[in-house]
Amino acid sequence: MVQNPPLKKEILMPKILKAFIGSYGLVFVILIFCIPVTIIRPVFWSWGNLSNILVQMTVIGVLTMGQVFVLISGGGGIDLSVGSTLAFSAILGAGLIRNSGFPVWAGLLVTLLTGIAVGAFNGLIITKIKISPLITTLAVQTAVRGLVMIYTGGADVTNMPRAYTDIVSKGIGSISWSVVITFAIFFITMVILRYTRYGRELYAVGGNEYAANVSGINVTKIRIAAYTACGLLASVAGIITTARLYTAGPRAGTGMELTAISAAVIGGTSLAGGKGYVSGAVLGVIFLQIIDNTTNLMAIPAAYVSALKGAIILGAAILDRIRSSDKFK
User: Fold this and answer.
1) What's the angle, vertex CA 178, arms to CA 175 and CA 193, rounded to 5?
2) Average pLDDT score, the chain
């Protein structure tokens, strides 16, 4: 009689590997990465350096939460316009405060509304006109960056008032308000995805659009909301960036969209949609920020850092493929 145990073992091992990669792989990688860094640069674990990592990760962390919403929504969901949205929304709000005498709260409100408007526009074009998210958001990225340059003439909006910059310069003890805001966004995003009807419907739409539609879920509404949330979070990132630099610049946020997408995918959010967790995305953000921090501590040339990040992005795509492969289900 033919024995079946070898076949069962062959099927079981991929499941174990997939579970490890999905749940513990990134934590393991971060720990392994930190060991030689700690030996070479013990200052890595100083509170001054760790607090710097926390502050530096705020902008990418907020942008990554937006990408989590969009990626989970499926349909090839991706938002390449968040860097431009960051700059555009921040410039408009800062310009009103500095040049038109608006109170800080009004400028902040305009910043947030601008991000919402750009995100909702992306969602409407993608869902109503059926243009692919890649093309839509790439076009919006280019157009919005052009609007920023037209509005500012290429000049920065400088010398933001203290009430604005206090977002970064003050906080709870030695923890900046920007860090508090970022972790509050992490928590709110987790609650929305795990415990709300919208979160459940978002996963359903991303996992199987046809089944979600048949079950009565408004797929269009769900996806528009995801892109709107992404735009809103891009504007929050714009506020943090402006507060940190005391300046709103037309080139702010350039290239950050790819870093945010990479952090989300490294953390387990699927490019195919329907899968993703805030905890994993946060780990992805932390991992990328640790790389930036340690390469600075070790004075590694920028060209090598760029090559390393490129390899990490490719590795993230490969991991996503492994996680979604039928061989590992």
Assistant:
1) 110
2) 87
